[in-house]
Amino acid sequence: MRELKIFSGQANRPLAKNICNFLHLPLAEITLGKFPDGENFCKIEEDIRGRDVFLVQPTCPPVNDNIFELLIMIDSCKRASAARVTAVIPYFGYARQDRKDEGRVPITAKLVANLITRAGADRVLTMDLHSPQIQGFFDVPVDNLYAAPVLNDYACSIPVPDGDRIVVSPDVGSIKRALGHAKRLGGKLAIVDKRRDNPTETRQEHIIGGPVAGHVAFMFDDMISTGGSICGAAEKLTSAGVKEIHVAATHGVLCGKAIEKLSASPITSLAVTDTIPIPPEKMTPKIKVLTVAPLLAEAIKRIHHDQSISILFDKGEE
């Protein structure tokens, strides 16, 4: 087999190191930085000719810097004669710009996919894409992993009296995800009817299903960005008589005033994975970080040995 090499960009080196620890591999050496004028610099510090290379780089904030760094890492590896380059993108930025919902707007998710492909990536490994159809934007194979098993394990670790668990979808678009979690966790299902007034503001009108009074609610989402939707849903559930509210999401973007909103909300706990690093100043007692490093490590090992990825989710996929 070709020798496996894992490199990390600057977006999330702790995650890359954890992946290497599970694979019992050293993190390969790379030099990244900027010239005085702000241009990015990259140099691969190891021989990768004929190697199977994996580049770990979520395109989280600062999104544009991290995307461009990923592109020049890919180009560096291709020009160094790597046999195969897999872009490991635990969080894919611009994923919400995946369609033309009005005139004269771009489909930026497709543009970023084109950039990654044209830079020379032979394969993409990502996690919980905002829309699964984004896989079709790439002209190379894409493996979209699910954090559902990790989130379900966390939810199961929270003690709940028999019959009191209820899984709540924070909006209509998340019903399929909520159904998948409810199937594996047990309990009832409810839906919060969310209305969007503008790109940054939403309001919660009704709770469909239930009843929710006296129950412990679990809400799951692919990402928490500004926190407006999830906090609004939590307030609606509290007014309906829910005892506790536990939220679990794959990507903790937590931008804008998200931390302030979450701290002031009735949410009991918030679990996010380490696809995006959370700065210490954003950590609060409510936030718990779950690692997806073992899942990504196993996927990398299976890709390297040309084995099935879908078998990982036979019992955990949503």
TrEMBL record:
Homohexamer. It comes from the Bacteria. The keyword Cell membrane does not apply. Residues 4-120 form the Ribose-phosphate pyrophosphokinase N-terminal domain. SMART domains: Pribosyltran_N. GO terms for cellular component: cytoplasm; ribose phosphate diphosphokinase complex. It comes from Pirellula staleyi (strain ATCC 27377 / DSM 6068 / ICPB 4128) (Pirella staleyi). Involved in the biosynthesis of the central metabolite phospho-alpha-D-ribosyl-1-pyrophosphate (PRPP) via the transfer of pyrophosphoryl group from ATP to 1-hydroxyl of ribose-5-phosphate (Rib-5-P). D-ribose 5-phosphate binds at residues 196, 221. The active site is at 194. Belongs to the ribose-phosphate pyrophosphokinase family. Class I subfamily. GO terms for molecular function: ATP binding; kinase activity; magnesium ion binding; ribose phosphate diphosphokinase activity. Mg(2+) binds at residues 130, 171. It catalyses: D-ribose 5-phosphate + ATP = 5-phospho-alpha-D-ribose 1-diphosphate + AMP + H(+). GO terms for biological process: 5-phosphoribose 1-diphosphate biosynthetic process; purine nucleotide biosynthetic process; ribonucleoside monophosphate biosynthetic process. The keyword ATP-binding applies. Its EC number is 2.7.6.1. Binds 2 Mg(2+) ions per subunit. Pfam families: Pribosyl_synth (PF14572), Pribosyltran_N (PF13793). It is found in: Cytoplasm. Keywords: ATP-binding, Cytoplasm, Kinase, Magnesium, Metal-binding, Nucleotide biosynthesis, Nucleotide-binding, Transferase. ATP binds at residues 37-39, 96-97. The gene is prs. Its cofactor is Mg(2+). This is Ribose-phosphate pyrophosphokinase.
